[in-house]
Write a structure and sequence with these properties.
The structure is a homodimer of 343-residue chains.
Chain A (H helix, E strand, L loop, with lengths): L8 H8 L3 H8 L7 H13 L6 H8 L4 E6 L5 H15 L4 E6 L4 H13 L4 E4 L9 H8 L3 E5 L9 E5 L1 H14 L5 E4 L6 H16 L9 E2 L5 H12 L7 E4 L3 H14 L8 E3 L16 E3 L2 H20 L8 E4 L2 E3 L7
Helix pairs in contact in A: 1-2, 2-3, 5-12, 8-9, 10-11
The first copy, chain A, binds a DNA duplex (16 and 16 nucleotides) through helix 2 and helix 4.
Chain lengths: 343, 343
DNA sequence: CTGAAAGCGCTTACAG
DNA sequence: CTGAAAGCGCTTACAG
């Protein structure tokens, strides 16, 4: 069976003794086309099961109604939520999403970007890979006149639209909350410090301690080492210190917070009475553990929506020829106080 | 600032006093082109920061090197993992992914499909929405000669390639395992029964009981009602029965299993001694609770890889004109035995 | 090995 | 309101 050809506007035109021009106009709801023939054309197109060729239309119009997204990992909660948020908002406007994952590798990130440029996407949304600090490929996006929007992990030096989480502020609030609850020796589980977002969380932790006149004890700061096998022992060591902490801010994520909870339970350390615990990212399970775990919600879906709205707004501005200043929108994460820090 | 035009093969040709034909051939590594000029062309293209226009190339070639994916929700673990798997395999071959979410709504699913048809994707991968049982839009995909691959939630009546999970077999194994461990009154937490996959899990549960000569007690089968507020009370009711279960198969997912664990702990019911628990889907947290929770791994990333491999294989067959029979590949989920069912 | 030409399916100024 | 024509950027048989 040879692939039968698709119906084109020429086929419709031929059938109705019209020209492709008219068919095109009718189908695009353009003015200057007789209402009766328009009706006829639309009806006939449906009958013939006509599907417009977006490729041709986009080539002609010089835009693709497509947004490209590059994230380190598609199947990481935060990112898949952001993508879902972007999808929701852009879909209504008839935009498509092309999605790539960099796998945290700079090489692949460059390749993804090139593919998206070749695809003539109208906009590229990216959260940069942890590896590499050469941003020539992103500059290339700008040079090709494609709107670039960075989020979460951003290259500061590039002047682009940015949507970020205020990690420092959120961390500061979380730690301040714990101090208010009477915790005095608060430990920090670091996330990977090569990423800015985790450095910000650490900075927030330190700022909170200082603001409340508490000392920063290096002994209580645990470097990121969260393979499954290392997590437990690290926490155990912490809790076995001569002067153990009375609270732990698991700034990496809720999984590390869960490990803390498990180790504490296992050692007979009561949460929240003897040990406060706060995680990060509001994974679904934090609500259902006992005690439930305090954490920080990043509003990831909302971040996605913000990104797309920012894009559409920017497009409007360009049409109006308003000067567009590169701006950064900071989303305030929300501290979710649950039982694990309430005493 | 007006958008500057991109470099085309004509620009390169002009610069080198050649024709677009030659440039095209050189850039596509085609034969019949002098090695020296080829080198020159490639070098010049790079210097001019030339990016091919995939839109034009695809229009001309009549294919898009793009695969469309439609899932109920992008940000659901299972689906985002499948997508990641597809991405990994297709990326190497230079394919792009256009991703849509149906939000479980039939209307939106139809719209997604139409968009993908218009985009001239080469293949559509879909897991159908829970709503609706009219599959005209999928038939339309086939009619447009686009390869259709269904996965997980499939419309049986359509003759397409299918990649499914053997939910029944996996559930049967899980329940049999619990029986082997000495549990005798095993309860079932159902998933939404309008979806085939959850009906299969229930069937596996019943089959296991029957195979081991155990009675099926309707009292022990709890309908899906997993809003956060309803989960706890439902489990509590179950455990307060005059003849309570000594094990629970949370066939819906690991979150419901976690609820069971929390309620049991709260009631002083020892897991696994007095109550066995098995979840479904191998969420990351199941490994780190105490006791760790037995569950079923669906190999979701592998499912994604299988889907793309199936597609490439099918393409090869078509090129060889081999008769292509619609086939179903069944992935065997893996029972992960942990502490919550080991006594 | 290279060039001239047609065409993928559409849109859109330009006439009438 | 409708048509004829050009062109988006590329690829590919057809000549030479």
């Amino acid at each position: 069976m040879k692939p039968k050809k698709r119906v084109t506007i020429y086929d419709i035109a031929r059938k109705l003794n019209l020209t492709a021009s008219s068919v095109s106009r009718a189908l695009n709801n353009s003015s200057h086309v007789n209402e009766a023939t328009k009706q006829l054309i639309v009806k006939t197109a449906a009958e013939m099961n006509y599907k417009p060729n977006t490729l041709a239309s986009n080539l002609r119009k010089g835009k693709s109604q497509t947004i490209g997204i590059v994230v380190p990992r598609i199947n990481q909660n935060f990112f898949s939520n952001v993508i879902a948020g972007i999808e929701e908002t852009t879909y209504q406007r008839g935009y498509n999403l092309i999605i790539c994952q960099s796998n945290e590798a700079h090489d692949k990130e460059v390749q993804c970007i090139n593919t998206l440029i070749n695809q003539h996407v109208d906009c590229i949304v990216i959260s940069v890979a942890s590896e590499g600090n050469d941003y020539a490929h992103l500059q290339n996006v700008i040079d090709h006149n494609i709107q670039l929007i960075q989020f979460d992990r951003v290259a500061d030096e590039l002047e682009t639209l940015k949507v970020v989480n205020d990690n420092q502020q959120a961390s500061m609030e979380a730690v301040s909350h714990m101090i208010t609850q009477g915790y005095k020796r608060i430990a920090l589980l670091e996330g990977p410090q090569n990423l800015d977002v985790f450095r910000q969380r650490k900075a927030g932790y330190i700022a909170a301690l200082k603001a409340h006149g508490l000392p920063v004890d290096e002994e209580l700061i645990v470097a990121n080492s969260w393979t499954k096998d290392l997590a437990g022992p690290a926490v155990r060591t912490l809790l076995n210190l001569p002067q153990p902490p009375d609270a732990i801010f698991a700034s990496r994520d809720d999984f590390s917070a869960l490990v803390v909870l498990e180790v504490a339970t296992d050692m007979g350390v009561k949460v929240p009475e003897q040990l406060g615990i706060c995680g990060y990212s509001n994974e679904a399970f934090t609500e259902v553990t006992s005690p439930s775990i305090s954490t920080i919600d990043q509003h990831s879906v909302y971040i996605g929506k913000t990104i797309s709205n920012l894009y559409f707004q920017e497009m409007d501005n360009k049409n109006k020829d308003t000067a567009s200043t590169p701006k950064t929108i900071s989303i305030k994460p929300k501290l979710i106080i649950r039982s694990s820090t309430s005493r």
